[in-house]
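Hey team,

Sharing the HTH arsR-type domain-containing protein run so nobody has to redo it. Sequence (212 residues) first:
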Amino acid sequence: MSDICGSQAAARSMQQLAREFSACRDMLVALGNENRQLIFVALLEHPGGVRVSDLAKLARLSRPAASHHLKVLQDAGLVDHYQQGTKNFHHASARLDRWAQLARVTTHAEQFVRLVQELDARAEAGKHACSESSSDPSPATDSRAAANPSPAAGPSTATRSAAKSPTSATFAAAGSSSAGSSSTAGLSTAGPSPAAGSSPSPHSAISRKEPA
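Structure output:
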């Protein structure tokens, strides 16, 4: 709701700013020329007034060009003049209504920019809040998951490794028995022990010989 209200406020501010710019178009156009800007700055720097010939020198313009630009500024209400004898002195206008229009444009332009920045900051904060809430599960979900483990998860890796299948146990037993028989066979092929031999030793043969 606050975002909608903020957007509506920004739209109203833009519309108001557009109306104020339209009311100041003649002044903005008059100040949009670089030569007229130089003339206007020279008038602000000489509050007592400046003659056309002096303005032409200050702005590095011809006298006719300076007179033309002065007329555009006068029509926009930014420049006025007074006469002293046969001489005309030009100065910045003291029309409060014209300066107030320019002041309103700049003031409302600043307010509009600040409002847009505030809306952008709110939108960015909302994005961060949504991303944090979606990435972190709720405590209730964690407790339910811990209390009710999924049956599809199956036993752990340690349990699966400990519980061997019958086939693997059979192969293991067969391997151990074959290893034992091989060692027994090796001992039997190494030769009979002297006590169990079939051939008598020479000493026993001499002892059994008949006397002459």
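The radius of gyration is 55 Å.

Ping me if you want the raw files.
A.
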